[in-house]
Design a protein that fits this description.
Elements lengths: L32 H12 L4 H60 L18 H36 L1 H24 L20 H6 L1 H19 L4 H16 L8 H23 L9 H6 L14 H10 L2 H13 L9 H16 L6 H8 L4 H8 L1 H21 L5 H25 L3 H13 L3 H10 L7 H33 L6 H19 L4 H4 L3 H6 L1
Helix pairs in contact: 2-3, 2-6, 2-7, 3-4, 3-19, 4-7, 6-7, 6-14, 6-15, 12-19, 12-20, 13-14, 15-17, 16-17, 16-18, 16-20
């Protein structure tokens, strides 16, 4: 079973709630008939084969129901987060700006404050107010990124121990506290300083594969929610802010209906352990076909410090491990934890593409300040700037649904799949580089809009690189590869929150065309990524893969 690389349940990147086809039952035994009989005797005892078939069919139907419920609930949660966060971002920026503006004029020119305690938005575009606003938003991203990077692994390990659903439900009171602190700071701005919103930064996890499936739907939701939010902001920014966070809260509450999936993963591990024992029986009879590889045996080791010892030596080894120094035990545990991820060093091309994820995320940090940049440089209101940005998803959807597939089918039809991805990625990074540079240099809205269009044309770069790098690893390494990618992107967020905030503040201080300094810098970073992608060559193992194998990945 473990030896069959094409078994759908043996793939680490396969849906963990997917049921195996009934026809695969006969292919699960790789040893001879004597080994099969012995294994059935050990694991099935006196159960009849007919009863096993009935139980398998019932189990398959039950798993299908749970899987459907799980996917619908999870899709609803992610979509609620997408719609709510996008709807709340614009109003939140406007409220932050009004608070910083009012606090500034209260100290330096109280006469500008109206009877209702507000300052006209047109007077809030000065560099002092915008610098404070950039600091508040940038360092919020920094604290959120740091907490995400530090808490992701402990939360994941805890979820494997006590279950996924309890950990998700545990985030509900934390999310309520997060939202409560943020709203209290904004509502009672005369009591709390604006920077107190930093206390509300809490981590929440992302799953790249799920967002990839929801990509087009999320973009459509982003467009609709941004447009509605901009329209509501012309009345009162608090209205779309409350609605947006209400939608997010509804998505969080959906977590209580999620089914627990830890027992499914446990069953998988038990099934794989049985395959290892079957391979051991086959090797004793001289059949090496089902023998597990060295890397597979290493992955199935437990958390003890035992390194391939015989059964009669196990108690002595455990006693010796207990006496080892603390640092040595920690080193051993760390080595066992990171060993499954050592495959990334097998190919230098993989490391090259992974650096592209890090630099890309670092460069995309400038998008956090795009609405503020448009409002400040071109003297637009934040509602108008937010409405302009809302049209970017409307342009990205046709790109993903029609333009890129058409290019792949007609212009690059003679190329293998990986070669197509590489060529499209090269064109996309050029669009990102030129479009981002144009945004930073545009003296007017008339010049900004074409630059936004060019930048949007390159928005498929990250998906193309993800598809390309996935074809360079084994199927059982795909999930671990995605984990590494997410960690790199979290690190990129942390670095970007500091660097982009500092550069944007520097541009505000310099004034004039230098307000776009952050986009000039990110364009340079995109150029470095582009140079790496253009120097990238497909390794022979990728070029030699068949289309069927690439489709399976």
């Amino acid at each position: 079973m473990a030896a069959d690389a094409h078994d759908p349940l043996d793939r680490e990147d396969a849906p963990f709630l997917a049921s195996a086809p009934e026809s695969s039952a006969s292919s699960r035994h790789t040893g001879d008939q004597d080994d099969e009989a012995e294994l059935k005797h050990v694991y099935n005892d006196d159960d009849a084969d007919d009863d096993d078939d009935v139980d398998d069919r019932k189990g398959t139907k039950a798993i299908e129901k749970i899987r459907f419920r799980f996917m619908v609930t999870l899709f609803a949660m992610i979509l609620a987060f997408e719609v709510g966060i996008v709807m709340a971002n614009g109003p939140m920026t406007r409220i932050y700006e009004s608070i910083a503006c009012r606090q500034y004029y209260a100290e330096y020119d109280p006469r500008q404050i109206a009877a209702d305690g507000q300052v006209p938005e047109s007077m809030c575009k000065i560099k002092e107010v915008q610098t404070e606003l950039a600091a508040v938003k940038g360092y919020m991203e920094f604290f959120d990124g740091v907490l995400s990077a530090f808490l992701a692994i402990p939360y994941g390990l805890l979820a494997d121990r006590i279950g996924r659903k309890p950990i998700i439900c545990l985030s509900i009171p934390a999310f309520a506290l997060n939202t409560g602190i943020m709203f209290a700071v904004m509502w009672y701005s005369d009591i709390f300083p604006l920077r107190a919103v930093w206390a509300s930064c809490l981590a929440w996890d992302e799953r790249a594969a799920m967002f990839f499936r929801l990509g087009v739907v999320s973009m459509g939701a982003d467009f609709a929610s941004s447009a509605v939010s901009s329209w509501m902001m012309t009345w009162d920014p608090w209205l779309p802010l409350m609605i947006g966070w209400g939608i997010v809260l509804a998505g969080v509450l959906c977590s209580v209906t999620l089914p627990e999936t830890m027992h499914v993963s446990s069953a998988r591990r038990t099934e794989r352990s049985a395959s290892v024992e079957l391979a051991h029986l086959a090797s004793e009879n001289g059949d090496q076909k089902g023998a597990p590889q060295k890397e597979e045996r290493q992955i199935h080791l437990d958390d003890s410090d035992v390194d391939s010892v015989e059964d009669d030596q196990l108690p002595f080894t455990l006693r010796s491990a207990a006496k080892r120094p603390f640092l040595r035990r920690m080193y051993s545990r760390s080595r066992q934890y990171f060993t499954p991820y050592s495959f990334i060093f097998r190919n230098k091309q993989i490391i090259l593409l992974l650096t592209a994820f890090l630099v890309y995320r670092l460069s995309r940090g400038s998008s956090w300040f795009l609405v503020q940049y448009i409002s400040t440089r071109y003297k637009w209101t934040l509602a108008e700037a937010n409405l302009l940005i809302s049209f970017k998803p409307a342009l990205t959807i046709p790109l993903f649904l029609f333009i890129l597939p058409a290019l792949s089918r007609h212009l690059l039809r003679s190329m293998p799949t990986s070669k197509k991805d590489l060529q499209l990625a090269r064109v996309s990074i050029i669009c990102l580089c030129l479009g981002t540079l144009g945004i930073g240099l545009s003296p007017s809205i008339a010049a900004l809009v074409p630059s936004l269009l060019v930048q949007t044309a390159g928005s498929g770069f990250l998906y193309l690189i993800r598809s390309l790098i996935t074809t360079m690893v084994k199927q059982e390494e795909t999930a671990r590869l995605f984990t590494i990618i997410e960690v790199l992107q979290a690190v990129g967020n942390v670095i970007a929150s500091l660097s982009i905030t500092t550069v944007f503040q520097l541009g505000l201080e310099l004034g004039g065309p230098w307000i776009g300094l952050a986009w000039m810098m990110t364009s340079t970073a995109f150029a470095l990524v582009g140079a790496a992608v253009w120097c990238f060559g497909l390794p022979p193992v990728v070029e030699g893969k068949s289309e069927a194998e690439l489709a399976e990945v």
